[in-house]
Amino acid sequence: MTDQTTVAQSPAGAAEPAPPPAKGAKDTRVDARPKNNRAWWLVLPVVVSVAFTAVIPLMTVVNYSVQDVFSPSERIFVGLEWFREIARDPEVRGAFVRTLLFSAQVLLIEIPLGVAIAVAMPRRGVSVSVALVLVALPLLIPWNVVGTIWQIFARGDIGLGGWAINNVLGVNFNYTLDSTDAWLTVLVMDVWHWTPLVALLAYAGLRSIPQPYFQAAQIDGASAWATFRHIQLPRLRGVLTIAILLRFMDSFMIYTEPFVVTGGGPGNATSFLSILLSKIAVGQFDLGPAGAFSLLYFLFVQVLCYVFFTVLTKSGR
Amino acid sequence: MRRLPWARTVFWLYVATLMLPILWMFGMSIRPNEDILGSFSLIPERVTFDNYATFFGETSWYSSYLNSIIYTSLNAVMSLIVALPAAYAFSRFRFAGDKHLFFWLLTNRMAPPAVFLLPFFQIYQSVGLFDTHLGVAIAHMLFNVPLAVWILEGFMSGIPREIDETAAIDGYSLPRFFIRIFLPMIRSAIGVTAFFCFMFSWVELLIARTITSVNAKPIAASMTRTVSAAGVDWGLLATAGVLTIVPGAIVIWFVRNYIAKGFAMGRV
């Protein structure tokens, strides 16, 4: 029993943020771990569950992508024909450029904005709890409800946002007719929806910076900007890597919100890759092209994520 | 630490802007439909709770609300059970292919959900999981298990290995050590992870809608019912919207203290 109390005391110490590892310290930690192939038994449940939810479905998609399916009994092997067709399809290319542009805009707006909000967030007192809960609230709203909120809010006749732009600013704004307005609505909606995630991650990163860093900066007479640039920002590398990756992935796969607000329109102004894909897969039930489309889509997200990850983690060393 | 003098004001202005669309939807849920479409007014002229009465008066509405809560909770529990030992393995041991496996797990988080719609529909139907809570909970493990492993691994790596070794010397077997000592130590990590699983499962609609029809239909899918031949029932739509925010708000209130502390320890 005495052993238990000694061990049980350590949680209090463990609840403190771990001291920041020095450069290269991570590698020594990796080396210190014992090699034990029986650890595979511990990861087996994960492998099985992911196999059922991801690998088997993905294999089905691969199967579709190389066949022309007329009916369950009638299929012809077509090789890479669908891949060629999808890669040449002007509609797919248009959606690809649109999605890429959207992701770029999302990252350029949300990352700096999120960091700024995190810096401005209260640090102590009851206001911390209130701020955290309110900032996190948009993240907990089902995605189609987010769409519904903005569908209502941005309407010129019944929504506060659309009404204010039309009647207070005097600009003619209608997201169901004008493609620029539709694009802006979807972009503003995404910024509203997801900047809180970046802000929370950055806030957590800022909180983990030990106080002596700031005291040292104060003694040196560093300006607020210099403190941010040379102490806070470098410390945020880890959380910002995650924020950028998550925001890239999710904005590149965005479906529900624009589908609810604009349905991809007007015309195809907000028809992103996922909207086009589900139109082909579920709407037209073209299994072959949809399968090939899915795989190319998946591959692109993976490659870009890998590039981001490598660049972001290597550039600091 | 130092803060700029106007930071506080700017921050609360941002929060106010953030709340505006939500408050607007709430305002719409307590107006009669004629007022919504009739004349534009900032403050509701007539306040009514008819929409809420409709929502809780109809089985199909509140049962789909319960459906969402059931499969979301189920998913959080299952994801944690599966992810905890795996995260421990990744943080404590080296084994053949560990790095590849870790990255491969993460790549599943990168799969566009639209990719999985067709196969999910067919597979879940053929194995009898179609339109069940368990089916949706399993399907959502697609993106929650990799995330849970990722977050938990970060937390666990922050706990010194000496604790494991001390416990082993004291005669604790691995399962007993894990349950009696290790799990209580990473309470906050489990809280944060459960929160993320809950969040991502609660907000997802595309997959949940595809593999359900009646019995496990999520609340979010029921909302499309407000569109009928007579047009959109904006008041009822807004009411359902407001009610879907409530569980999330409750969960986040409980984990609010873990968020900052927990994030900082973990890799997220």
From TrEMBL, chain A:
**Entry's Gene Ontology BP terms:** transmembrane transport
> Which keywords are on file for this protein?
Membrane, Transmembrane, Transmembrane helix, Transport
**Compartments, as annotated in UniProt:** Cell membrane; Membrane
Q: Which residues form the ABC transmembrane type-1 domain?
A: 96-308
The record's listing under Gene3D superfamilies reads:
MetI-like
Q: Does the keyword Transmembrane helix apply?
A: yes
CC annotations in GO: plasma membrane
Its transmembrane ranges are: 39-62, 100-121, 128-153, 182-206, 238-256, 292-312
Membrane protein topology class:
Multi-pass membrane protein
Q: Which SUPFAM superfamilies match?
A: MetI-like
Q: Does the keyword Membrane apply?
A: yes
For the region Disordered, what residue ranges are annotated? 1-30
Sequence similarity: Belongs to the binding-protein-dependent transport system permease family.
PANTHER family the record matches: GLUCOSE IMPORT SYSTEM PERMEASE PROTEIN GLCT (PTHR43759:SF1), TREHALOSE TRANSPORT SYSTEM PERMEASE PROTEIN SUGA (PTHR43759)
Stated name of the protein: Sugar ABC transporter permease
**What broad taxonomic lineage does this protein's source fall under?**
Bacteria, Bacillati, Actinomycetota, Actinomycetes, Streptosporangiales
TrEMBL record, chain B:
- Record's keyword annotation contains Methyltransferase: no
Domain spans labelled ABC transmembrane type-1 = 65-255
Show the GO cellular component annotation of the record: plasma membrane
What is one GO biological process annotated to this record? transmembrane transport
Q: Which UniProt keywords apply?
A: Cell membrane, Membrane, Transmembrane, Transmembrane helix, Transport
Lineage: superkingdom: Bacteria
Regarding protein family, the annotation reads:
Belongs to the binding-protein-dependent transport system permease family.
- Write down what this protein is called: Carbohydrate ABC transporter permease
